[in-house]
């Protein structure tokens, strides 16, 4: 099915052109699988037809409505009146066009210029998602977004005063602010601010910019909005700049020395005074510098100033000119589209701003990027007497600017070339399969569910290929879990501590400081098939920044409960942190939407020993809310109230895609008969299954404490003695102290089995299993729920006490072994014996009710992953969402 986009630009050349270039880029990136209807007033049809080449004629349809606005040719005489007309007169005819189009081909998305105040209302009435395109710089957007700060700081009047409080923008003079900030009328400014206020209701925000040029501004804006924000620039016709059409000015440029020509263009809309134009032309001629100047004005006598070193033309293909090797500089009015074209071509800029955003653009070029020189020093003020730059000054500045031999000239051009490399780093590529990169935290409890999710993704969509990234130490174990050839394992050096490291904090520190450069390097290496999306473990929050710099959509995968994410991301909770640190751990928290009451002591990481990890978890939650979407390893019916509350409070799409366990591998296993378990299997790794086959139904307690946190030797002894005394059948996984524990049972142990490893899911599904003593790691709980068994909870740390609370109090499918999950006190063998005998008593009223509820959870779990189930639907919806976002990646 073809995806249909309606694009509507603001009616100005500096807006129409980038919107059209965006549409052309979308067609290239989407492999022509989209249809675009480009809507303009009739005045623009001639220009649009000229700029729409035959290659896109079938995919970009031009649709017009009557000229309800003053002509562009006269709008400069009354810009406030024109701007107000755009805000008030275009909405009705545009909505009529939408209705007409929808009658033929359903519209899937509207892309509108941010400066069309009414776009949001039309999209809302027609139930259509809205993407907004901002055609100026991200820095200027931040200035408008934070306009209130100027009012609060009384930052008007003194043009030389420095402003250093605009988020994401380097310090600048008040005179460097957009010119309409100084407009006494204020009508246009108020309309601008209204447009910015509507941005929060969009589904996407697109910037005609490059991340590397404005990283601070972009990062700031991404922190302000919860929906996806993409830098998709430069929206210039770089894919058409190789046209070989014969043009006289190009022949003239061919005859000029390399880097010797100054190109001059002051835009298509705002103009300079007659007096300033005369000073400019004379100054250029007097400088002796070669130049090519675009001049549209009526004063033809100026052309008589032409010398052998210069050429005047009424129009040119600007990008082709700036790409020519004879061009050594660009005297520009600093319109953002022209700035981007200069950067794309690596040409330094001599700035001559006239109005609106051109003033801060000039400051950004000269002071931030350091790829230009100011022609005018007094900018953005209302003092007219110093507005004209005289011919002698112009001749001096131009001559110095075009001096290639000076140190300043060489450095200026070197920096311009560096910006060029950032602009052209990722040109459009040919069609390819969708490619996702999956980056888990290097730990068993994180790697496994992300691999199982990857298997589910490629099974759902065979056209998706996945690069799964692990450190070298995890290669042997992860390869066995790879179920599909569409998943490629990529290893990075062992830069982090082994999972068995005694210090969890030191492991985290290693991950945070050493892993990022390796992932950054990997993303730079796979340029032959760049990722169209990245799924990252939420605890690796820095992955999102790496993806953002490359305009790659990201999905955050949270490896534990939705409840923990919700608790850590809910701001009201933060004020109570010190209560716990001060000893008030029994205080009840009952104000989290969707969450039943909980003690502070049950909230993960809220203790003195985990403050750094808590800060890390908070930062991870903050990053998740700015991701393209959130993936949770749970299923809807298990945490429905929390998930509903999350979806109400955040606009970030949330998908429950669990349980992320290897249930799909069981189909192949189940197709084989028990006769396949031969003598070798009985004496090998599968002997425990043969032993389970000899046990009565629901009679065996399965015991496992996970692969990371450990139980003390003293506690292990108490558990072993309790099992020995109780007579309860058991299968116990012990990795390190197995031999010592076996000695406690002696050689005559007829009711239990101690093993170093087992296939946990197969064990939990065995009919002989009647209960599961667990540390409450989320992956293990998901397997227990899938197996339909009740739990004995024995949490050790991190999120496990919270999960224990959910099992015992919320789901009511388990009992606590410890009276206080946070306590480190030894649980004695006498206490354990009583608990074990009661827990495994199948015919008790309490026990049968608990097992009935466990079976109901199992039923809901199996429904979620079945065809048409909630998790299956969510995986498909996620894939549609994340792959369709590639529409907003014209550079690959």
Question: What does it look like?
Answer:
This protein is elongated. It folds into four domains: 3-238, Rossmann fold, CATH 3.40.50.2000; 241-423, Glycogen Phosphorylase B (Rossmann fold, 3-Layer(aba) Sandwich); 434-662, Glycogen Phosphorylase B (Rossmann fold); 677-870, Rossmann fold (3-Layer(aba) Sandwich), CATH 3.40.50. 41% of the residues lie in helices and 15% in strands. Helix 21 crosses helix 23 (611-624) and helix 28 (713-726) crosses helix 33 (829-839). It is an alpha/beta fold and 892 residues long. The chain has a seven-stranded parallel beta sheet with strand order 3-2-1-4-5-8-9, sandwiched between helices. Strands 18-17-16-19-20-23-24 form a seven-stranded parallel beta sheet, sandwiched between helices. The protein has a six-stranded parallel beta sheet with strand order 12-11-10-13-14-15. The protein has 35 helices and 30 strands. Residues 241-246, 379-385, 426-432, 576-582, 671-683 and 887-892 have low confidence and may be disordered. Helix 1 (13-29) links the parallel strand 1 and strand 2. Pfam families: UDPGT (PF00201). Keywords: Transferase.
Question: What attributes does this structure have?
Answer:
single chain, about 900 residues, alpha/beta, Rossmann fold, 7-stranded parallel sheet, 35 helices, about 15% strand, elongated
Instruction: Summarize the amount of helix as a percent range.
Output: 40-55%
> Cα-atom Rg, whole angstroms?
33 Å
Largest sheet features = 7 strands, parallel
- The CATH class of the largest domain turns out to be Alpha Beta
**Spatial ordering of strands, largest sheet:** 3-2-1-4-5-8-9
Percent strand equals 5-15%
For this structure, what is the CATH homologous superfamily of the largest domain?
Glycogen Phosphorylase B
Compute the number of helices.
35
Q: Which architecture of the largest domain would the CATH scheme give at its second level?
A: 3-Layer(aba) Sandwich
Number of domains: 4
What do we call the CATH topology of the largest domain? Rossmann fold
Overall mean confidence score, pLDDT: 81
Q: Which residues sit in consecutive blocks of at least 5 with pLDDT less than 50?
A: 241-246, 379-385, 426-432, 576-582, 671-683, 887-892
Shape: elongated
Structural class: alpha/beta
Number of strands: 30
Distance between the termini: 22 Å
GO molecular function: quercetin 3-O-glucosyltransferase activity; quercetin 7-O-glucosyltransferase activity
InterPro entries: UDP_glucos_trans, UDP_glycos_trans_CS
Keywords: Transferase
Family: Belongs to the UDP-glycosyltransferase family.
């Amino acid at each position: 099915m073809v995806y249909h986009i309606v694009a509507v630009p603001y009616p100005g050349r500096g807006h129409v052109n980038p919107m059209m270039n965006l549409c052309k880029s979308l067609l290239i990136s989407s492999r022509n699988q989209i249809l675009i209807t480009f809507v303009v007033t009739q005045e623009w049809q001639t220009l649009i037809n000229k700029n729409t080449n035959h290659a896109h004629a079938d995919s970009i349809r031009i649709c017009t409505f009557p000229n309800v606005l003053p002509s562009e040719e006269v709008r400069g005489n009354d810009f406030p009146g024109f701007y107000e007309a755009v805000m008030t007169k275009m909405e009705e005819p545009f909505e009529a066009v939408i209705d007409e189009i929808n009658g033929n081909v359903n519209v899937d998305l509207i892309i509108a210029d941010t400066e069309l105040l009414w776009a949001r209302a039309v999209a809302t009435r027609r139930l259509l998602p809205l993407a907004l395109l901002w055609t100026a710089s991200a820095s200027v957007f931040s200035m408008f977004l934070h306009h209130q700060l100027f009012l609060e700081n009384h930052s008007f009047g003194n043009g030389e005063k420095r402003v250093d409080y605009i988020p994401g923008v380097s310090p600048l003079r008040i005179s460097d602010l957009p010119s309409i900030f100084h407009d006494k009328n204020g009508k246009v400014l108020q309309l601008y601010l209204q447009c910015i206020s509507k941005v929060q209701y969009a589904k996407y925000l697109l910037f005609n910019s490059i991340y590397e040029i404005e990283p601070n501004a972009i990062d700031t804006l991404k922190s302000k909005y919860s929906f996806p924000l993409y830098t998709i620039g430069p929206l210039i016709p770089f894919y058409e700049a190789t046209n070989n059409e014969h043009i006289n000015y190009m022949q003239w440029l061919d005859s000029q020395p390399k880097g010797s020509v100054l190109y001059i263009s002051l835009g298509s809309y705002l103009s300079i005074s007659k007096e300033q134009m005369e000073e400019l032309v004379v100054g250029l001629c007097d400088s002796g510098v070669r130049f090519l100047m675009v001049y549209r004005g009526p004063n033809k006598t100026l052309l008589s100033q032409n010398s052998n070193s210069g050429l005047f033309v009424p129009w040119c293909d600007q990008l082709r000119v700036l790409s020519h090797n004879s061009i050594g500089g660009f005297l520009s009015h600093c319109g953002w589209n022209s700035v981007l074209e200069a950067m794309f071509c690596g040409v330094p800029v001599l700035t001559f701003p006239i109005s609106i955003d051109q003033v801060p653009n000039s400051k950004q070029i000269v002071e931030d990027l350091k790829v230009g020189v100011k022609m005018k020093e007094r900018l953005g003020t209302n003092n007219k007497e110093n507005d004209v730059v005289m011919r002698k000054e112009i001749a001096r500045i131009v001559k110095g600017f075009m001096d290639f031999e000076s140190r300043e000239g060489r450095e200026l051009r070197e920096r311009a070339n560096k910006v060029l490399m950032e602009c052209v780093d990722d040109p459009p590529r040919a069609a390819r399969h969708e490619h996702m990169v999956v980056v888990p935290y290097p730990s068993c409890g994180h790697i496994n569910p992300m691999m199982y999710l990857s298997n589910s993704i490629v099974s759902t969509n065979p056209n998706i290929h996945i690069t799964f990234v692990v450190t070298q130490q995890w290669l042997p174990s992860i390869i066995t879990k790879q179920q599909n050839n569409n998943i490629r394992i990529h290893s990075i050096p062992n830069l982090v501590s082994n999972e068995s490291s005694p210090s969890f904090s030191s492991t985290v520190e290693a991950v945070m400081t050493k892993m990022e450069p390796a992932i950054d390097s990997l993303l730079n290496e796979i340029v032959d098939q760049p990722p169209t999306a990245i799924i990252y473990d939420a605890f690796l929050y820095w992955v999102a920044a790496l993806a953002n710099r490359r305009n790659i959509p990201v999905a955050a995968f949270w490896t534990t409960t939705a409840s923990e994410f919700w608790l850590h991301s809910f701001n009201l909770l933060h004020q109570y942190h010190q209560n716990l640190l001060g000893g008030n751990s029994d205080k009840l928290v009952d104000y989290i939407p969707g969450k039943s009451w909980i003690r502070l002591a049950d909230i993960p990481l809220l203790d003195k020993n985990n403050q750094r990890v808590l800060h890390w978890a908070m930062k991870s939650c903050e990053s998740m809310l700015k991701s393209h979407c959130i993936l949770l390893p749970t299923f809807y019916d298990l945490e429905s109230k929390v998930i509903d509350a999350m979806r109400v409070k955040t606009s970030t799409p949330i998908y429950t895609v669990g349980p992320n366990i290897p249930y799909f591998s069981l189909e192949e296993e189940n197709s084989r008969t028990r006769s396949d378990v031969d003598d070798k299997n009985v004496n090998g790794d599968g002997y425990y299954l043969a032993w389970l086959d000899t046990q009565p139904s629901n009679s065996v307690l399965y015991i496992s404490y996970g692969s990371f946190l450990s139980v003390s030797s003293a506690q292990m002894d108490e558990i072993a003695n309790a099992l020995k005394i109780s007579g309860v059948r058991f299968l116990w996984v012990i990795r390190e102290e197995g031999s010592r524990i076996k000695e406690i049972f002696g050689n005559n142990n007829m009711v239990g089995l101690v093993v170093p490893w087992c296939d946990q899911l197969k064990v939990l599904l065995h009919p002989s299993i009647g209960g599961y003593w667990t540390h409450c790691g989320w992956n293990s709980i998901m397997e227990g729920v899938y197996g339909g068994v009740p739990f004995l909870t024995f949490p050790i740390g991190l999120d496990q006490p919270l999960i224990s609370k959910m099992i015992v109090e919320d789901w009511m499918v388990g009992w606590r072994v410890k009276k206080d999950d946070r306590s480190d006190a030894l649980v004695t063998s006498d206490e354990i014996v009583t608990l074990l005998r009661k827990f495994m008593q199948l015919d008790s009223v309490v026990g049968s009710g608990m097992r009935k509820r466990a079976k109901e959870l199992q039923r809901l779990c199996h429904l979620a992953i079945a065809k048409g189930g909630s998790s299956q639907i969510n995986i498909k919806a996620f894939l549609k969402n994340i792959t369709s976002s590639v529409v907003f990646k014209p550079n690959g």
